[in-house]
Structures are given as C-alpha cells and as structure tokens.
Amino acid sequence: MKGRANGGKKGKKDLAEGRSNISFFISGDSMFSYPGSTPYSHGILESIEFDISSMMSSWDPRVFVLFSLLYGVKGDCGPPPKLKNAVPIDGSLTESFRPLQSVIYKCLEGFYNIDGKVDVTTCLSDSTWSPIEEFCDPRCRKPKSSKFAELKGGERKHFYRIGTTLTYICRPGYNSIPGISQLITCLESRTWSALPVFCERKSCGHPGKPKYGDVVILTDLLYTAKVTFTCEKGYKLIGSPSTKCVLKGDRVEWEAKLPQCQRSTEGTTEETVKKKPGVKNIAAIIVGLSLGALILAIVIILALFFLLKHLR
Fold first, then answer.
1. What are 44-62's pLDDT values in tens digits?
2. 241: which DSSP letter?
3. 3-state secondary structure of 82
4. Does 99 lie in the same domain as 127?
5. Which residues lie across from 33 on neighbouring strands?
6. Which alpha helices (H) appear in 195-278, and where do they start and end?
7. 3-state DSSP assignment of residue 299
8. CA-CA distance, 26 to 29, in Å (whole number)?
9. What is the CATH classification number for the domain harbouring 145?
10. CB distance 81 to 121 below 8 Å
11. Rounded CA separation 109/130 (Å)
C-alpha cells in the first residue's frame, strides 16, 4: 500500500490562521486531511512518498501534521481504567489497546449490575478511554426459604440492596410466637441476618383411644406428628392403625377417624378352649380315674390275701 502527501505552498502564517490544506492520501480512497473540511478516516499508513529530510532542513508545517496523524493512527490507550468492584472479563489490566478496541467488565463476587449501567469502555482515536462509571454494587441474593415462615406478600427479587429489611409471616399450620422479631436485614457483608424462630406448630389435640385399645404417641401432638393405635388381646383393630396431624384449611386436625377394637372370633374360641375342658381333657381324666381304681383294687386284693393267709 502506498500513499502520497499533497500540500499547498503555505507558510507559518497560513497554518496559524488555519488555512493550511495538507492532505495525505492512502490507497483505497481513504483520505487524511488536516485541518481540511473532510474528516479523516482510519487506515494503515505503510509508506509516504515524499522526502522528510527536505522538510526537516527548513521548518515545514507538514512535519507537524505528519507526526500528529501518525500518533492518531498508531495511538495506544494503555491499560483500561481500574474499577473498584469490577475487572475486565479477559483480565487485561496491563495490556495496551489500539483505537476502537473495547474492554468489557464483569462484577466481582457479591457485586451485581442491577441497574443496567454501561459495562464496557472503548479506546478512542485520541488515545483515551471512553467514560465508564462504577456499575457494580454490593447486593444480597434472595434469602433462603424457611420451613416455618415465608416472605410477607410472597414476592421475591433476585437481589436486594444493603440495608433492605424483609418481613416474614408464619406458614399455614404454624402460630406466631409473641415478642419475637419477624424481620431480616441485608448486611454490609452481603449476607442476611439470621431469621428468628418466631413460629411454632399448631396442635391437633389428643386423638383419643379406642375402647379395649390404646394410642401410642411417637413424638408429640403437633402439626405433622403421627400416632398409632393398638387393641387389647382378643380384640382386632377396625379402621386405620395410625393417623397424622395435617392441615385442613387454616386449621390442623387428625387425618383419620378414631378406629375401634372389636372382639375377635378367633380369640374367643381360643379363650373358650383354654377355660373349658375339651374332649381330650375328659378322656384323659377318665383314663386317669380308671387306672387309679385298678391300682386301688389290686392293693385291696393283696391286702385281703395277706390278711387271710395270716389268720390261717
């Protein structure tokens, strides 16, 4: 690529009065003009076909214009601006940049560009960076959910400003405990203050126990608790063997009805067999009595035999 310098015969006075019209032409019809009426466009100046030494031998305004243009075309903005809470995405804080090159920033951890501010700066033709303001602010992320409470109104943002205060209310199935705060605050550390335990589970009350049976309380009688039922020996359970304290509307109650204990037919037969002698038992008694009578008869016969023998 070659170019040429084209300047009129104008002296110091013409330059001072702004009448100099020295132009540098680049192949591809790109023109640099100073201070002509047509703005110059950027290009790559590889060679200029005129004798610089001849211009340096005597003061020539074209020398000043030439080096000004070279500085504009070959300018270097140096490292991009340093921001307090953001860094370049590619980590290029120590590099140099040519005109029209841009640097995009990203926020540090815990800082966010909530307001959509400009996050890019560009190297300008005068070797300066385009203006960029601090756009990353400290924020608290949305608070974690709680088992017993929820945010009042149910609205949740993704980020909250430092000093923001949120109010919680008890979830269904819980009662608030008087005198305990229901607030959390976004702290300077970009974390939320601890949420106090200001809710307690509602009670379903005692479920009762079936007649000829009992209830087994596994933990307590509060919301989400579970109990089981049993029957006495000789009775069987009719109904659900367990129940759970569940939410019904804004109240809590036992999920299943109280079961019943009914006398078992199998149990009654077994008890009757145990209490009343069966056929086998009667036969055993008869055999026992017969053996006893036989032995007694033998003893009596032997006794009479020895008695008669003695009398003779």
1. 333 334 444 454 455 555 5
2. S
3. coil
4. yes
5. 23
6. 265-275
7. helix
8. 6
9. 2.10.70.10
10. yes
11. 25
